[in-house]
Amino acid sequence: MSKALALTGNGACAFAMRQINPDVVAAYPITPQTTIVEEFSSYVADGLVDTELICVESEHSAMSSCIGASAAGVRVMTATSSQGLALMWEMLYIASGLRLPIVMHNVNRTLSAPINIHCDHSDSMGARDSGWIQIYSENAQEAYDNTIQAVRIAEDPKVRLPVMVLLDGFVISHAIDRVEVIDDEVVKSFIGDFKPIYPLLDWENPVTVGSFDGLYGYFFETKRMQAEVMERAKMVIKKVGNDYGKVSGRSYGFFEAYRLDDAEVGIIVLGSTAGTAKVVVDNLRDKGIPVGLLKLRVFRPFPLVEIVEALNHLKALAVLDRADSIGSFGGPLFTEIRSSLYDLSMRPLVVNYIYGLGGRDIDELQIMKVFSDLQDIQETGQAKKAINYLGVRE
Amino acid sequence: MASLRELAKKKNLLTGGHRLCAGCGASITIRQVLLASNYPLVCGVATGCLEVSTTIYPYTAWRCSYIHTAFESVAATISGVEAAYRALKKKGKIEREMKFIAFGGDGGTYDIGFQALSGALERGHRMLYVCYDNQAYMNTGIQRSGATPLGAWTTTTPAGKVIPGKPNWRKDLTACVVAHNIPYVAQASPSHWKDLVSKVEKALETDGPTFINILAPCPRGWRYPESKTIKMAKLAVDSCFWPLYEVEEGKYKLNYQPKEKKPVVEWLQLQGRFKHLFKPENQAILEKFQANVDKAWENLLALAQKT
Amino acid sequence: MKWDIRKIKEWKFYEHPQGITIPEAGNAHYYPTGSWRSQRPEINWDKCTHCLFCFIYCPDSSIIVKGEKVVGIDLAHCKGCGVCAEECPKQAIEMLKERV
Ligand code: SF4
Ligand code: SF4
Fold first, then answer.
1. Are B161 and B180 in contact (CB under 8 A)?
2. pLDDT tens digit string along B193-204?
3. Do A64 and B70 touch (CB under 8 A)?
């Protein structure tokens, strides 16, 4: 039913796109996303998909075309990175505000200046309030699996929101990995047919999409509705993660709790760094040190209840942020995680490590250092420094 | 070419009850464009007067499918709609012939939407782009755009003591579009409805991207009485400021040659936005204005003769 | 009116169509703009030749045409701009002060 291939992360995404066979893809090349579009273009050129590929002149137009096509009533996908995502900015909010189920890969890369093509999460973290679902991937396998699930999640009638599938630039996008892919037919029946709501192409029932909320003021209501469907999306994400397990053997939840149940200290991380962190956790566990890891997969909607439940027993917790929120107090993941734990009467001490900006390597030694800091905190009952920069020359 | 009698029998795709100003040139223009179509349409509109005034939730004046996304994105948005249509057509999921029109004001077309327009034209989508050119950012309160003519007062080019109105001439957008080598490009005016309607008909039958730039006088921004909208459009044509022409497969054709070319001041003097130019110290600006119009007109005549 | 919006001001957030898409085409027809008017066009039927110029130039689709003939003005929507009067080749339209 499934077979294993050697694919790069981007190759795995393009492979999934071929199986999904979207009606329209509008995309613009940017490092490190480029090979997704290149590989998909060759599927188009070889007639392996029915997709109308629009090679637009900018990412702003990429998202605008996706919005037009999705509103017209077809299944739409795209991919971008970094500056590209930033250029799409205003259109991201329009896609979610119009409730269009567009699926997009964002291959994480930092934002200029200085210009740098390597991974961090500044790009997608900046889009965290844009009303898109965000699903992070640890490796090429997850990038593939998340892509297929994203279509079902986005298009679910209870959700109807755009979904961003995130994978780390170069670390995942360009590294060859073993990826188990499921059969084309299985993908096809898993995602089902696209059923549009208010399609522009239904010429017998013309609609006005993108109306102006001018004088009466229903804007707030539409935002409240987006918050509501984002909340509802949690159930759907869970169900789709389970159903996906049935067809692939790989089930997914909001996060992966790795040796966390009986851990006393833990770290929380997004994306590929989880792989390195697992190795460190195993090493420390071998030495009898009770450490654990929470790898967050779904950042939007933020799975508050489940996260609190998974972390509440810890004595100390380090949040690893691959993005800074300059001028705030810590990275974006940190502020949300720490705030989620606030209501607990007994809560872990939480510290923040900002790491890996602009592709700075994160290795086992650095993660070891985090765990040893956590042990200090556990022993002394206090954190010397809440916000820490890991791996910077300071 | 449809007669007025025939046009009046067609379904009116822009209903009354929209909130554009009394005497608005854009609404006359859009009505004429829509009347020319014999197909189900999907229209996209760039942010601007037309967009905000015709779709104030929960009311829409559009009787065909309509989409608005942002200011600079209408060409790309309609590209997406048209691609979706092709995808469904290919799969046999839609049979009916449909047409796609993108509308942008001069701000959304000459300026902020220029890149998206250029991209869409180059990619060859089967769509008509209509620019309703009212020569400034009217929706935000009359700021200068790339289409604002020399010397015009706007709120960002006030008639000051040192700088009397807009110091620059205007972008020749129609010529920029011609440079894209698309099958059909035209310039039209709502005063010449027959010419306008037949251009839209032609554009909609063309296989490939088409573009029509239409002068849409604005009583508020140009400072003239609202009943004079069609007069203003007509004078712009008769003074050769806004020539009516088309470029089909690279071939220029002049569609209207005024019997007597009116001095451009006849058009300017009726508009409050040019009032300061009639002070003696600004005489040179008026002369330059006329010289620019003459030069562009001569160029056009030469092109029409050559091709 | 296909889409009943009479009580829209009381609707809860989840009662609006998604993305505030307007599901009924052309329902602005139910929105009167006639109150904007300070003057009202009146057609002198003796002069009118039914050339339909007023129809093609009216910005507010307010010239009512039935079977190739102008039959009246849609005063629910006419904003009184006077374009029709200005463009009528027969001077058949007069703008009269609207009584308030
Ligand atoms: S323009 Fe004048 S003559 Fe022509 S139909 Fe209208 S009212 Fe009659
Ligand atoms: S006054 Fe203006 S809005 Fe009223 S019918 Fe005449 S042209 Fe139309």
1. no
2. 999 999 999 999
3. yes
Residues with CB under 6 A from ligand 2: C 41, 58-60, 62-63, 73, 78-84
Would you call A222 and C8 a contact, using CB atoms and an 8 Å cutoff? Answer: no
Nearest Cβ partner of A197 from C8, C18, C20? C18
Q: Are residues A242 and A259 in the same domain?
A: no
CATH code at position A281: 3.40.50.920
Q: Taking the CA of residue A161 as centre, how many other CA atoms within 13 Å lie in the half-sphere pointing to its CB?
A: 29
Q: Domain segments of chain C: what residues?
A: 32-97
Residues A264 and A374 in one domain: yes
**Nearest CA residue ID for atom 1, ligand 1:** C88
- Predicted confidence (pLDDT) at residue A112 exceeds the cutoff of 80: yes
Q: What average pLDDT does chain A have?
A: 97
Residue B144: give its domain's CATH number: 3.40.50.970
Nearest CA in chain C to B6: C68
Tell me the residue range of the domain where B282 lies: 4-306
The C-alpha atoms of residue A393 and residue A361 are separated, in whole angstroms, by: 13
pTM of the model: 0.97
Distance, in Å, from the CA atom of B79 to the CA atom of B127, rounded to the nearest integer, reads: 8
User: What distance in Å separates the CA atoms of residue B112 and residue B235, rounded to the nearest whole number?
Assistant: 28
Residue nearest to atom 4 of ligand 2 (CA): C78
How would you list the strands of the sheet with A163-168, edge to edge?
Answer: A52-55, A24-27, A76-80, A103-108, A163-168, A133-136, A298-300
Q: Say yes or no: ipTM exceeds 0.95.
A: yes
Cα C27 to ligand 2 centre (Å): 20
Cβ within 8 Å of A, B 148-177: none
Of the candidates B58, B61, B230, the beta carbon closest to that of C8 is on B58
Answer yes or no: do A262 and A303 share one domain: yes
Closest ligand to C53 CA? 1
C58 touches ligand 1 (CB under 6 Å)? no
A136 shares a domain with A191: yes
Question: Which pLDDT score, from 0 to 100, does residue A3 have?
Answer: 94
Q: How far apart are the CA of A79 and the centre of ligand 2, in A?
A: 50
For A291, phi then psi, to 5°, come to -115, 160
- Amino acid present at B286: L
- Output b/e per residue, A269-295; b: 16+ Cβ within 10 A: bbbbbbebbbebbeebeeeebbbbbbb
Token output for A387: 């916000």
Separation between Cα atoms, residue B112 and residue B172, nearest integer Å? 15
Q: Pick A198's closest partner by Cβ from C9, C14, C23.
A: C23
- Assess whether A155 and A237 both reside in one domain: yes
Which chain A residues touch B15 with a CB distance below 8 Å?
none
Q: Please say which residue of A248, A281, A299 terminates a domain.
A: A248
Q: Distance between alpha carbon B114 and the CA centroid of its chain, in Å?
A: 14
Which CATH architecture does the domain made up of C32-97 adopt?
Answer: 2-Layer Sandwich (3.30)
Nearest CA to ligand 2 atom 1: C80
Q: Do A234 and A383 have their domain in common? A: no
Element (H, E) at B67: strand B65-67
Domain range for A288 is 255-390
Among A248, A274, A305, residue at a domain's last position: A248
A232 and A289 together in one domain: no
Predicted confidence (pLDDT) at residue A1 exceeds the cutoff of 70: no
Between CA B280 and CA C29 the distance in angstroms is 50
**Where do the H-state alpha helices sit in B10-73?**
25-35, 49-54
- In sequence order, the 6+-apart residues with CB closer than 8 A to the CB of B55 are A208, A210, A211, A212, B45, B61, B62, B66, B68, C22
Structure confidence at residue B243 (pLDDT): 98
**Is the model's pLDDT at B230 over the cut of 80?**
yes
Tell me, yes or no, whether A230 and A116 share the same domain. Answer: yes
Chain A positions touching C8 (Cβ under 8 A) are: 216, 218
